[in-house]
């Protein structure tokens, strides 16, 4: 028997790439969902035209009135700013979640600020892109992608079950973590790669400028493009991530520097020993797969 969500009204605050894609994915799977959006007027108009939301407003109170589920799909610091602002207008029993890329501060703030009869579960879909905006929203963005939920000792299990069903509806794969564990892990597998992509891109750009030569750019192949694709990501998002996960990112930078020294030493003294590193990386890379669905 097919399970159906009992959310009658879903409000998405921030109808950009992630919020818009969630709206499109949910409407595609269940056109009966009533989805309201809160954003700037021009974004609301585009989101309605694309079918990501049924209605929209620039007014927080009007947008979340009578909502059964509120999804805050904005940058991290905006989420932190919104939580106390929306609290007075949330109805009893409402489930609130977010899509922020860091979780520690958000979950701590939500559990401290939101009313006790409102349920919060931190969320983070691992389905972003270097592109952004409602124009780039895609109903298949979450297909077979990992959707992380962060729980604590105060998490309401009924609310957790409801949001797990939504993740199933959009064909994403769930992963449940502690908020601090989440921040440590994404600091390694998401935030460090972003720092590396930015650093590598800028290094090559500066080498070209120093030598007054565009030959570096002419020689760039698909490997470099693949490694640095995310360097195009907007700083507006990464500013918040770097500030709210600074400690973990710095730890992972140090871990990478330590490993780079090992590679440097082998290259300098025993180049043939790099074969072991390459083989180890090949085996690990082939083994990478998304967590299996645990239905």
From TrEMBL:
Record bears the keyword Transcription: no
Keywords per UniProt: Oxidoreductase
Keyword Oxidoreductase assigned: yes
Pfam families the UniProt entry points to: PDH_C, PDH_N
SUPFAM superfamilies hit by this protein: 6-phosphogluconate dehydrogenase C-terminal domain-like (SSF48179), NAD(P)-binding Rossmann-fold domains (SSF51735)
Gene Ontology biological-process annotations: tyrosine biosynthetic process
Entry-linked InterPro entries: 6-PGluconate_DH-like_C_sf, NAD(P)-bd_dom_sf, PDH_C, PDH_N, Preph/Arog_dehydrog, Prephen_DH
MF-aspect GO terms: NAD+ binding; prephenate dehydrogenase (NAD+) activity; prephenate dehydrogenase (NADP+) activity
Taxonomic superkingdom: Bacteria
Residue stretches making up the Prephenate/arogenate dehydrogenase domain: 8-295
Name of the protein in its database record: Prephenate dehydrogenase/arogenate dehydrogenase family protein
């Amino acid at each position: 028997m097919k399970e159906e969500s009992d959310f009658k009204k879903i409000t998405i605050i921030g109808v950009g790439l992630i919020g818009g894609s969630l709206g499109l994915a949910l409407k595609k799977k269940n056109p009966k969902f009533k989805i309201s959006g809160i954003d700037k007027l021009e974004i609301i108009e585009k989101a309605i035209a694309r079918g990501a939301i049924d209605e929209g407003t620039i007014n927080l109170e009007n947008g979340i009135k009578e909502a059964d589920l509120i999804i805050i799909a904005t940058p991290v610091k905006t989420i932190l700013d919104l939580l106390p602002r929306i609290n007075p207008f949330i109805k009893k029993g409402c489930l609130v979640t977010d899509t922020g890329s860091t979780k520690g501060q958000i979950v701590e703030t939500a559990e401290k600020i939101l009313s006790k009869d409102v349920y919060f579960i931190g969320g983070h879909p691992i389905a972003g892109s270097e592109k952004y905006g409602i124009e780039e929203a895609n109903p298949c963005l979450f297909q077979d992608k990992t959707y992380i939920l962060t729980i604590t000792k105060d998490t309401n299990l009924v609310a957790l079950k409801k949001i797990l069903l939504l993740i199933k509806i959009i064909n994403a794969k769930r992963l449940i973590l502690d908020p601090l564990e989440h921040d440590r892990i994404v600091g390694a597998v998401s935030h460090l790669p972003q720092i590396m992509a930015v650093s590598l891109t800028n290094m090559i750009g500066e080498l070209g400028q120093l030598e007054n030569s565009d030959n570096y750019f002419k020689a760039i192949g698909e490997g470099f493009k693949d490694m640095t694709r995310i360097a195009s990501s907007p700083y507006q998002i990464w500013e918040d991530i770097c500030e709210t996960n600074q400690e973990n990112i710095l730890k992972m930078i140090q871990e990478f520097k330590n490993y780079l020294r090992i590679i440097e030493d082998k290259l300098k003294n025993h180049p043939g020993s790099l074969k072991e590193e390459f083989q180890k990386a090949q085996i690990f890379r082939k083994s990478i797969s998304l967590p299996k669905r645990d239905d």
